[in-house]
Amino acid sequence: MSSGKSILICDDDVAILEVTRTILELSGYTVHTKENTNDIIETVVNLNPDLIIMDLWIPEVGGEETTLILKNDDRTRHIPIILFSANNDIERIASKTDAEDYIKKPYEIQELEEKVRANLDKTQDVGSTS
Amino acid sequence: MHHTFKKQTVDVSTQILSISLQKFLELLPDAVVVSDMKGETLYVNPVAEKFLDVTFSEIRGKNILDILPFAPQKFLALDILSKLNKGGSVIEELSFVTKKGAEFHGIFTCTAATDEEGVPVGVIGILKDNTERKHHEDMLYFLNKAGEELASTLDYNQTITKIEELIVPRLADWFSIELVNDQGDLELISIKHKDPSMIEFALELRELYPADKSGNTGTYNVLRTGKAELYEEIPDEIIKKTSKDEKHYQILKKIGFNSVMIIPLKLHGKTIGTINFISTKESGKRFTENDLEIAEDFARKVAYAVLNARLYASVEKELEERKKTEELLQLAQEYGNMATFSWNLDSDYSLNRNISMLYGTREDATMEDFQKIIHPDDIEMLKETINEAIETGDFYAEFRIIPDSQNIKWILGKAKVLYENGKPEKLVGVNIDITRLKELEQKKDEFISIASHELKTPLTSVKAYLQLMERMMVGDEEKKFGGFLTKTQGYVDKLSHLINDLLNVSKIQAGKLEFIMEEFDFDQLVKDTVESIQNTVHHKLVILGSSKATVRGDKVRIEQVFFNLISNAVKYSPKGDRVEISLSSDNEFVHVSVRDFGIGISNDNLVKIFDRFYRAEHSANQFTGLGIGLYICAEIIKRHEGVIWAESAEGGGSVFHFKLPLLHHL
Description:
Chain A has 130 residues and is an alpha/beta fold. Chain A has five helices and five strands; from the N terminus they run E-H-E-H-E-H-E-H-E-H. Chain A has helices at 14-26, 40-47, 63-71, 90-96, 109-129, and strands at residues 6-10, 30-34, 51-55, 81-85, 101-104. In chain A, strands 2-1-3-4-5 form a five-stranded parallel beta sheet, sandwiched between helices. Chain A is globular and about 30 Å long. The model of chain A has no long low-confidence stretch (mean pLDDT 88). Chain B contains 21 helices and 22 strands. In chain B, strand 11 and strand 12 form a beta hairpin. Chain B starts with 11 loop residues before the first helix and ends with a strand. The model of chain B has no long low-confidence stretch (mean pLDDT 86). Chains A and B meet through helix 1 of A and helix 16 and helix 17 of B.
């Protein structure tokens, strides 16, 4: 199911980045990974991903704050963000931010795939109507 | 002794009369002196001889004025003589100290004897000795006064000093009070003599020659018999008998005992001591039966004063001790950052200790005062907790206060409601500053939070890889390893649940456990959850019945309740092979019970199993686990406004029940 869509995953844990990248690549996505949130706007603008998966607990600037930054920039605002966390309260945190969705760690592959697809479809819809 | 009048007439009848009169005068107990108008002595009777310490032959023809020892007496005699020059009588009350030093009180009646023309030719003086009567009157008056003194004050020492001053030397030369101590010995409470050096001497003597405890006279005898002893006179034999050796005898003799009264102090029929009056030759006072009567009356007053003084002293001692305890308690509380309070529920009156230190308020702060410093976010919770306490009798709350703008303190309040006639009257308990504890707890919560996150991170990769493997297996591989992978995933889930439990406990403690409420089909949730758990256990999990209802709640957390209850059921029935999950509903609630056929729980443990970190004591070594599962279950059910409880018989398996409010039936 190759869609040619690209996804950026931000997570400070290399193992998680690796396995999640593998899973998503198997689904046919182009996957970029980033272990921190430094120069996030520049990175996102350069890579121009269709979706961002954002870990919550990242040293220095965390996922919650980074989401806020991305959603406050005209160049990146349109990109859907899925928060990604082992935090039990991820749902509540996600509802407080402008993130589109959330995935709780440890995750079911199926859930990951469904949420990624659903959020990419949404941008498709937005893209097609605009 | 032979005395005769100076003859003036020689007629026989006069002679007979004269002799009779002379006899009469000799027998008279009063002193009689006859003189001419100049004072030349014509006659003294034997009493007067003794009194003046002269014989008639020595004094005859001499002027009476020369014999009187002291100037005032001479002056008085002169005055009387001059007054009687005109005839008539003079009556004088006399008080003086005799040559031997004894007190003397008397009435001196002088009458002029006149010739036929009525011209005074001589004086007849009769001195009536009133010393004893005067002494008796003094006794009555001053002991009464002393008695009043006793009744008027509670200051023991001051009272005794006053009494001593009233008694010595006026009524006795020595006065002492002795009381029985716990060992049954007489202890000298007070001793008085006008000369302080004599008191020293008496104390030394007492030390050297202690009173004979078994003697049939003296203070110990009075103590035994409860009967007063009166020695109007002390003849030498008594001193000899009382003395212990020659030296003692000489000393006692030198003291010169004259008269002694030993009077028991009685309280409710029991003799508690003696009061002792001693007169010496010094004053020459003699105690009589009449004196004894007065002294006994006084002794009763002394006994009651002793009783009062003892009561007072014991009250004072108790007060002193209470004050000391109070101070220690105050210190202990200060060191422990603890305050105590007693709050009247209806009047808002409170009796506190150390509240000011903890809260920075007045010590008798009212609820209103407290409301001003209690953290606004905690006021409602506190009010509710107090209302609940009035219902249940127990108060327990942790809350924050803001005693000043810079600080927030955490306070633990623990109290009981005291009831009077079934009505809640007071809330009595303690407040403890637990700020430091809370800070540590917060650090611990942070640690647990980080630890569980760190644990979950590798778990996330493990779980994802397992799923990837499961997916990528083909043909034989799936047959061979499929089952293993499913089980491994189940254990990963279990690990994940355990980590969540750990995290949840710290969140419950911090009051930060969040719930995401949604409406869901209860039976479906139970079915899914039980299926997932079944993957990891050998026991057969059986669902009996159904609720046919929707519930509004946090799915993940309720799933966790099932996970914990079923895990426990499996864990504590190692020999069982089956766990039953029964579902039902009524109009308001869905009911769930999880039954195992295991070791059961004793009654003692049954009430505590929902406490944090509680693990049945004997099970600690036998079964693994954190002891937090049921605590979390209870918290989750409580937050859903449900109820959880357990029933069990040791060895007979356990049933855990809970009910949750239902939304509607399907």
